[in-house]
Write a structure and sequence with these properties.
Blueprint: E1 2-3, E2 6-10, H1 18-22, H2 25-98, H3 101-173, H4 176-226, H5 236-247, H6 251-261, H7 266-273, H8 288-309, E3 316-317, H9 319-334, H10 353-363, E4 367-372, H11 390-406, H12 415-421, E5 424-426, E6 429-432, E7 435-441, E8 447-453, H13 469-517, H14 520-593, H15 595-659, H16 663-679, H17 681-693, H18 697-701, H19 712-729, E9 731-735, E10 739-740
Parallel strand pairs: 3-7
Antiparallel strand pairs: 1-10, 2-9, 4-8, 5-6, 7-8
């Protein structure tokens, strides 16, 4: 609740007669001082009195506000009670309507039936309680047996600990030299074992190195045998016919080329160049060293042919190209079971063109593939991937390249020869300016010659091989021999170490045997202690088995007790539910039987709640009236204290001005009064009107100086002072503080 009032006091004093009293101002000053002091005291007392009235009014207001809050709470509570009583009355009315003889009889019958259910459930609880009691007895017996077994186990464990301690003491009785000797023997045996393992490891390394040397020697021997004489010679007529065909692949040129190619007896050359050598070891075509030898051999054959043809650009071979070829063949031929030639050539699947396209995208380069029958076209029979030697593989490469030259007509249309003798393109496809060959064999024994255009981006030309295959093979052999020598030296060192370690073991054994013979009694004590410990351990194991058996029996008894207790709790829950249902049915019968009485009680409670609400509402309204009165009284009291403060402030200022005046001040006051005479007509009129219209001034006049015979001069001076103050200060406005509750 907010209230705001404005009180404006106009401190205006008429100055019409000021001229007459100015001359007497100096004489009246002394008398005026005492009078103003009295006036100040009076006004200050008035402020204190009105402030006390404000405090009392505030207290009355606070009390009234508390009464309103309490009355409001009572109204809320009474309203809630009416709502609750109304609901109860509606329920009683519905109950009364349902209280027919038929419904009462039906409810009574349901009570009887439910009583039978309760009795049956109670009997089940009693029976299950007996089962629980029996199970608890079994569990208690099992608990006692388990406790006894646990005690026996603890005793057996203590015996083991005692026997262990006795053994430790007996062993400690042995001389420190014997212990040291035993430790020395253990250390010597460990060192001998490590040395033996090192010898075995180094022997395996020597064996592997010897195998590598043998393999490298086989490569050197094979290269030495074939390198100087392995050149496929093309006749001038063949070269001319091939150039004519590649320039114009007409039927006539193809026939002419085929006729010239028939004259090359490359099969006979193969038989002369490659001889059976049963001493060569079986090699793996995917071994990097074997791949290197084969790819360098193939590139040398091709480059010799290109030189005969008149080309100056050569193919290259690299480890990166070989890795790519092996990866491509495994991924797109071996894993996909892609048989390029099949078993009869006619049933072969041909080149995996989709695989070539995909791999070209993967490597971001151009790829061309030539394929040869490889290990399947020997003159002396077919080899397998498991039995092939380096000679077999070199033979296959030579055979494939020779076949591509002299037996490449028909469906191939000399495409293999074209791939060998083109420059900058392969089979009409541009982008082969830096050709590197990668060679790999698939799982069927067929050879794949992958021709890559190597660039800085795809790195296929990196790790390039020297095309001087003889030097490369010799380097391979030299490295393998160095590895073998190093392995043999290490084996020799490890063999020496083993001999030293074995000698140390013998010495430690002799030392230990000597000490054991000199401490037979201590050894006997140790033996006895060990026997006692073994006996204690056996007893402990027996006690442990018994304990585990009893613990298992106890766990079973606990589980059984828990199960029957759960069944008892379930039966008790069923009984409780049945009793609750019976109580509900009995309450229904009681409600139906006593419907009249219940309705009358609900009606009376509702009427009483309504009456209580009416009373509470009246009390609230009365409290609100009292609060409004208290608020009005508080506002009046605050207005009065503001007026008293204003009067006190004016009186104080007048007193200060009069008491502080000197001769010059009084002259100035006279001049101000003269000025008021001239300029203060409106003020005089205002004061005159206010004095006539305000009946309350009588109260104020009792506190201000009065006119009369005794106080004429003081009054005159007061009027002058008030007039000057009015000119200086104008209107004083006071605003009452905002009241909020």
């Amino acid at each position: 609740m907010n209230k705001k009032k404005m009180i404006r006091l106009t401190a205006l004093v008429g100055v019409a007669t000021a001229t007459g009293v100015v001359a007497e101002a100096n004489q009246a000053h002394a008398a005026t001082t005492t009078t103003t002091e009295t006036t100040n005291q009076t006004t200050n007392a008035s402020v204190e009195s009105t402030q006390a009235a404000v405090d009392a009014a505030q207290s009355t207001f606070d009390t009234a506000q508390t009464s309103v809050d309490s009355a409001q709470a009572n109204v809320t509570s009474a309203s809630n009670n009416v709502t609750s009583a109304s609901a109860s009355l509606s329920s009683a009315i519905a109950n009364k309507e349902a209280a027919t003889p038929e419904n009462i009889a039906s409810a009574t019958s349901a009570v009887s039936s439910q009583a039978v259910v309760v009795a049956s459930a109670s009997q089940a609880v009693s029976e299950q309680a007996g089962v629980v009691s029996a199970a608890a007895s079994v569990q208690a017996s099992a608990q006692a047996e388990a406790t006894s077994a646990s005690a026996s186990l603890s005793s057996a464990s203590a015996n083991v600990a005692s026997a262990t301690s006795a053994l430790s003491a007996a062993e400690a009785a042995l001389t420190s030299d014997q212990s040291t000797a035993a430790n020395n023997l253990s250390a010597a045996e460990s060192a001998a074992s490590s040395a033996s393992a090192a010898v075995s490891s180094d022997q395996a390394a020597v064996d592997n190195a010897q195998a590598a040397v043998a393999s490298a020697q086989a490569i050197v021997d094979a290269v030495a045998e074939v390198q100087s004489s392995d050149v496929i010679n093309m006749s001038a007529a063949y070269i001319t016919a091939l150039k004519n065909y590649l320039a114009n692949p007409s039927s006539a040129n193809a026939a002419a080329l085929q006729e010239v190619a028939k004259g090359a007896d490359y099969v006979k050359e193969l038989q002369q160049k490659f001889k059976s050598d049963a001493s060569l070891d079986v090699v793996d075509p995917s071994d990097p060293a074997v791949q290197e030898a084969l790819s360098v051999y193939a590139v040398n054959l091709i480059n010799q042919l290109r030189n005969q043809y008149g080309l100056t650009t050569a193919f290259g071979a690299s480890a990166n190209a070989n890795v790519a070829a092996l990866d491509f063949v495994k991924k797109y031929y071996d894993y996909e079971n892609w048989n390029i030639f099949g078993t009869t050539v006619s049933d072969g699947q041909g080149h995996n063109k989709n695989g070539l396209d995909a791999y070209a995208v993967q490597l971001n380069t151009s790829i061309a593939e030539d394929a040869g029958s490889g290990l399947t076209t020997w003159v002396k029979g077919k080899a397998t991937m498991a039995t092939t030697t380096l000679h077999n593989l070199l033979y296959a490469v030579y055979s494939d390249i020779a076949t591509m030259l002299f037996d490449d007509g028909g469906t191939n249309n000399w495409s293999h020869a074209q791939s060998i003798f083109e420059d900058g393109t392969i089979l009409g496809t541009d982008g082969f300016n830096n050709v590197y060959l990668g060679l790999a064999f698939d799982k069927y024994g067929y050879a794949h010659y992958e021709l890559y255009n190597a660039t800085e981006g795809n790195h296929l030309g990196n790790n390039a091989y020297s095309l001087d295959v003889q030097t490369a093979a010799q380097t391979l052999l030299t490295n393998a021999q160095a590895t073998l020598a190093s392995a043999k030296a290490s084996l020799q060192r490890m063999t020496t170490n083993l001999m030293v370690a074995k000698a140390a073991v013998v010495a430690a054994q002799d030392q230990l045997a000597a000490l054991e013979n000199s401490s037979a009694s201590d050894s006997a004590a140790v033996t006895a202690a060990r026997t006692q410990l073994e006996s204690a351990k056996t007893s402990y194991q027996t006690a442990l088995a018994t304990y585990q058996q009893k613990e298992a029996a106890l766990e079973k008894a606990n589980d059984e007790l828990a199960n029957v207790q759960a069944s008892l709790e379930a039966a008790q829950a069923t009984l409780a539910a049945a009793k609750a249902k019976l109580a509900e049915l009995e309450e229904t019968v009681a409600n139906l039987t006593n419907a009249d009485q219940l309705l009358a009680a609900a009606q009376a409670a509702y009427e009483q709640a309504v009456a209580n609400l009416t009373v509470a509402t009246g009390n609230l309204e009365a409290a609100q009236v009292d609060l409004a009165k208290a608020e009005a009284q508080l506002a009046l009291a605050e207005e009065a204290v503001e007026q008293a403060k204003a009067r006190a402030e004016i009186a104080t200022q007048v007193d200060q001005q009069l008491n502080g005046s000197n001769a010059n001040d009084r002259q100035s006051a006279g001049q101000d009064a003269t000025s008021l005479k001239t300029n203060g007509r409106a003020l005089t009129a205002t004061v005159a009107t206010a004095s006539a219209a305000n009946p309350k001034r009588g109260a104020d006049q009792g506190r201000l100086p009065q006119t009369g015979a005794d106080n004429q001069e003081a009054s005159a001076m007061a009027l002058v002072g008030l007039g000057m103050l009015g000119m200086a200060t104008g209107l004083y406005g006071y605003k009452k503080k905002k009241l909020t509750k």
